[in-house]
Amino acid sequence: MDERLKETLSAMMDDQADELSVRRLLSHGDHGDIRDQWRRWQQVRDLMHDRVSPVVDVSSRVRESLVDGAAPKSAPARGRLVTASGRAWHWTGAAAVALALAVGFGAGAGWDASEPDTPVVAGAVSATSSGNESEIPEVALQGLNEEQWEHLSRYLLEHAQHSSVGSGSGSMGYARLASVSGPVGQTH
Amino acid sequence: MNKSTMMPFSHSLQPLLAVVLAALFALPAYADQPETAEQWLQKLASAMSLSAYRGVFVYARGEQVNSMQIAHRFHDGEVQERLVQLDGESGEIVRKGERIFCVLPDHGRVKLDQIIASGPFAEPFTRDLAPDGRWYQASLMDESRVAGHETVGVALDARDEHRYSYRLWLEKGSGLLVKSHVQTVDGKVLERFQFTTLELVDGLPDSEFELQSQGPEVERRLHTVAGDERGRLEGWHLNWRPDGFSPSAVPRSGNKQAVAFSDGLATFSVFVESVGTLVMPTGASRIGATTAYMRYVKAEDQGFLVTVVGEIPPATAMRVAESVEVDSSLSTRPQAETHDN
Fold it and tell me: What are the pLDDT digits (tens) for B107-147?
């Protein structure tokens, strides 16, 4: 499945796909491939919401959006990543993340620690519970330039290797590794 | 598929398992279904290496989500694993014992292959892994189903504010970890790991452990670090670290000084490096359960960047970073390069 199809698929999940893209998706031969991708994204979404949702049939969803003709004009998905990041685990946010992964880590999508319900000054949790509240200066990853980001990435990667051992979960360590190597933010 | 494949005491594995268990826990082995949270954790530790399985798992922290396909077996006395990244650019890692083969996409300027060789990440440290009852309160949770498997839940609640709590879901037959959460003391989930499909099998063919991606291939050999080299600090020292964290690995890469500490569950790494002209902000960044805290230290006339990276709360990371003291001996050394590439 090529990247544009993935992009279309992701946009569809946000009801953002334009008709032309959807038609192209439907004409794509490898439906099994598309279904697999769709299912993975659904699982991701369910995971984020700690819930089991009814399986959505991608082809019927596509047909609906064609019949309604209501699909909004294509808002470039990459652009939406920025706005989506403000709303932590809403489905659009999750889709944006999935999209970012699918289209090759664009636009600094990951690494956003500034969701409103996740205060970055998050020592709050432990600080308040321990009673000795102290201010913890916050560094927004988006604010780092390329050189700074690269430097920090190396540390994150090395640490991921340490913890793949320490956590006793080999695959978790790999996942952290892969996760770090993912979005090289700020270069776009 | 046969879920009971890896019941720990099949004949061929018995000698090995006895060794593994003895090393890990120094407790007598038992063959019955575990009953307590501690017994389940013991079972988990051996299952992680010795089970044979294939599946797809999803890993999420912060706003990042990765899904990976995994095949795992214990074969010819070594762990063999193949992981394929399913999202974004394709990447593939095959591990056979201490040998690692990777085909990795080029992620911007960060070359994973340069880093992957620099630290040990194999078995030698599993003995450090048993969560200690002094730092975590272990208890059983309700049974539930994950990826079609019956699981037992184990809660590991931090006993102090210096670490996070964990929720682990273990497949009932094998003890394999099929889902986990890392969360704050008040239950906010920071990091999630979960199989979405999982097949426990008797064995897997060799073909599932061959690199299949096209691309530049990198081979690395893991090296182990002798116990007395762990935690050796050269030119700097830590004045504080949370109780229960002991040195676990000394990666040797480039000119930077790095040490990792683990309490059996959580790990944090401390990097001390002369950074030349590079200027980094001071403070904490968070990616899911991972905190990176950076600060500068002056010794003589030279500046050093101290970075603490770990699955620990920001307040803990900050306190560790602020306790780092650079000796004058480190600053009199030749200026280190910023990057070792």
Answer: 443 444 433 333 323 233 333 345 677 888 889 998 899 99
Neighbours of A119 (CB within 10 A): 14
| CATH H superfamily, domain B11-221 | Lipoprotein localisation LolA/LolB/LppX (2.50.20.10)
Helix, strand and coil content of chain B, in percent to the nearest 5, comes to 20, 40, 40
Q: Each residue of B224-281: pLDDT tens digit?
A: 444 444 445 667 888 999 998 887 755 444 445 678 888 877 889 899 888 778 888 9
Is residue A108 one of the residues assigned to a domain? Answer: no
Judging contacts by C-beta atoms under 8 Å, the chain B residues touching residue A118 are 188, 286
Task: Give the minimum alpha-carbon distance from B301 to chain A in angstroms, rounded to a whole number.
Answer: 22
ipTM above 0.85, yes or no: no
B269 vs A110: CB contact, 8 Å cut-off? Answer: no
Task: Give me the torsion for CA of B232, B313, B142, B54, rounded to 10°.
Answer: -60
List CB contacts of A2: < 8 A, sequence separation 6 or more.
Answer: none
Average pLDDT over every residue of B101-107: 63
- A167 with A184, same domain: the answer is yes
Q: Give strand pairing partners of B258.
A: B271
Q: Where are the domains of chain B?
A: 11-221, 227-331
Q: What is the CATH number of domain B227-331?
A: 3.30.200.100
Question: In which element (H, E) is residue B317 found?
Answer: helix B314-322
The range of the structural domain enclosing residue A118 comes to: 113-140
Nearest CA in chain A to B115: A158
Lowest mean pLDDT among A101-105, B64-68, B74-78, B142-146: A101-105
Helix (H, G, I), strand (E, B) or coil at B305: strand
Q: Which residues of B touch A143 (CB under 8 A)?
A: 281
The structural domain count of chain A equals 3
Q: Mark yes or no for CB contact A154/B110 under 8 Å.
A: yes
The two structure tokens encoding residue B89 = 């650019």
Q: In percent, how much of chain A has pLDDT > 70?
A: 14
Set of chain A residues whose Cβ sits within 8 Å of the Cβ of B66: 101, 175, 178-179, 182
Nearest CA in chain A to B340: A154
Q: Which of A121, A141, A175 sits opposite B68 (nearest CB)?
A: A175
Q: Same domain for A43 and A84?
A: yes
- For residues A12 and A53, membership in a common domain is answered with yes
Same domain, A37 and A84: yes
Q: Do residue A62 and residue A118 come from a single domain? A: no
| Residue predicted with more confidence, B188 or B258 | B188
Query: Across the A/B interface, how many CB contacts are shorter than 8 Å?
Result: 288
Q: Which of A106-115, A178-187, B75-84 has the highest mean pLDDT?
A: B75-84
